[in-house]
Write a structure and sequence with these properties.
mainly alpha; two-stranded antiparallel sheet; 6 helices; binds iron/sulfur cluster
Amino acid sequence: MITPRCTLNGMPMFLSADKKLKPCCFLNTSREYAEFITWGKQRGYNVEFDLDTTLHSINEIHNSPTWKGLIESFNMQSASPKTCERACGPGSYTSTTGNAKHSTFEE
Ligand code: SF4
């Protein structure tokens, strides 16, 4: 089970250069975002469409299947994207603020 820094510790959302509102910066890099898209496809979510700020308001994005599915996945065993398991799962980094790596942290 993961301990989501986004919902529990206020990890900031991330607006990417291609105008997608992503749940956090960990999901922004090419590899991590590709995994997130694949995770969504496996569940019937259109991640690229759902997170597109040129098509939707922030409120609409937060109520999209992708966003809601991600939040719901936090309560299920091994149901979240691999990035969430790595960044917020058992054995992930610790920090003084509980969210970003730029705070003092120990590996
Ligand atoms: S990696 Fe996943 S669980 Fe962790 S802060 Fe980002 S969206 Fe939330």
